[in-house]
Amino acid sequence: MTRIPLTLLAAAVATSVSLPLAAQTPRSGGAPPAQGGAATANIPEATVNKTGAALREVAQIRRDYSERAQQAPEAQRQGLAEQASRAAADAITRQGITIDEYNRVIMAAQNDPSLRERVLAAAQSR
To answer: Structural domain of residue 49, as residue ranges?
Structure first.
């Protein structure tokens, strides 16, 4: 896989490369996602590393499918979007985290510069 530029990964975190609601698993327990401060300090380093690895793959998938969608006829774009969503979900779960865990870390990283740097470093480490 080609190396994703750091600027693209940073933009992905800033704009939340999270999956559409249709691809997410239902939340059990009703706890809201962690946001900012002490809550992000509780995110294990292993989860940050897995999220970074998943982010790298999700950013590549989004880039690939975006290029394909631009070239595709209008009638095929919805199907490509669904394929991209499934591919992103598979990329995340291959890293050993759930889609909810991934989204929670990405959302928290938007509000926590320290966590954002840790996720980006993990995304660039391979």
So the answer is: 6-13+43-124
